[in-house]
């Protein structure tokens, strides 16, 4: 986290020095600061940070793609005259145990249209999910495990 | 020019998802499917509209406010949806008769 702060400070300094406080310029400063930090020497904290930033970006891109795809699926469902969906309430086992990671995971799943996390077991080992378009529960469990869960763990641990 | 086209595309897409969200609220058979179709599509709708505003004005203050509003939406909407869904689930609100369960609830 300290490196993130430093990176932000470098981006602010870049904006101030170039005399323009636009979003684009700030982003340019952030990227330059990121590169500068990468070549400089902070052995202890740096590895974690430089591993995390690409993973976090990968998680965000993955999530945005899921969001748009399933929104279109839901829109199709709402606009079609017949019920096409196959609603299902199912239990999905969790591999991650850290409460913060579970919070992020359930939020991402709930934000994706068509799926809604109804409950998490008290032992934090499974969640109850309501889904609208799942034909095969096993395939859905695998998708969660290898898609969302894997990426959340990579980005946050 | 480019940002105007982007604004128009974002506005149309946002309005489309807002429309389907409203329609889903009327058309879906039970509380769970309603939560699924309306809440999330509304998030996407608001996000797209806010992004359109940011692109239209290209002003740092407005962009910052739009980004913060989108972030807060992304934090609060799933928590609200989860709490409403959990309340319904724990109170055993009836789901649509076509809903399948695992048998191990």
TrEMBL record, chain A:
The keyword Transmembrane applies. This is Na+/H+ antiporter subunit E. InterPro entries: Cation_antiport_E. It is a multi-pass membrane protein. Its main location: membrane. The keyword Magnesium does not apply. The lineage of its organism: Bacteria, Pseudomonadati, Pseudomonadota, Gammaproteobacteria, Cellvibrionales. It is found in: Cell membrane. It comes from Biformimicrobium ophioploci. Belongs to the CPA3 antiporters (TC 2.A.63) subunit E family. Keywords: Cell membrane, Membrane, Transmembrane, Transmembrane helix. It holds the Pfam family MNHE.
Automatic annotation (TrEMBL), chain B:
The chain crosses the membrane at residues 6-26, 38-57, 63-84. Pfam families: PhaG_MnhG_YufB (PF03334). Keywords: Membrane, Transmembrane, Transmembrane helix. Signal peptide: none annotated. InterPro entries: PhaG_MnhG_YufB (IPR005133). It comes from the Bacteria. This is Monovalent cation/H(+) antiporter subunit G. It comes from Biformimicrobium ophioploci. The gene is mnhG.
């Amino acid at each position: 986290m300290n490196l993130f702060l430093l990176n932000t400070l470098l981006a602010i300094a870049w904006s101030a020095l170039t005399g323009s406080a636009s979003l684009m310029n700030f982003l340019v400063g952030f990227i330059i600061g990121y590169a500068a930090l990468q070549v400089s020497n902070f052995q202890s904290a740096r590895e974690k940070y430089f591993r995390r930033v690409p993973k976090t970006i990968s998680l965000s891109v993955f999530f945005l793609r899921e969001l748009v795809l399933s929104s279109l699926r839901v829109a199709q469902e709402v606009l079609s005259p017949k019920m096409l969906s196959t609603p299902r309430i199912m239990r999905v086992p969790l591999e991650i145990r850290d409460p913060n990671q579970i919070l992020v995971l359930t939020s991402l799943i709930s934000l994706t249209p068509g799926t809604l996390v109804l409950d998490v077991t008290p032992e934090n080992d499974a969640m109850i999910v309501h889904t609208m378009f799942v034909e095969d529960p096993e395939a859905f469990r695998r998708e969660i495990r290898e898609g969302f869960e894997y990426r959340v763990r990579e980005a946050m641990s | 020019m480019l940002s105007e086209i982007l604004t128009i595309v974002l506005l149309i897409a946002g309005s489309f998802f807002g429309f389907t969200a409203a329609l889903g609220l009327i058309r879906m058979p039970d509380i769970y499917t309603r939560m699924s179709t309306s809440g999330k599509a509304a998030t996407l709708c608001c996000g797209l509209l806010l992004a359109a505003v940011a692109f239209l004005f290209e002003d740092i203050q407005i962009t910052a406010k739009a980004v913060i509003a989108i972030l807060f939406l992304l934090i609060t909407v799933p928590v609200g949806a989860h709490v409403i869904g959990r309340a319904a689930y724990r109170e055993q609100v009836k789901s649509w008769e076509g809903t399948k369960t695992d048998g191990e609830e």
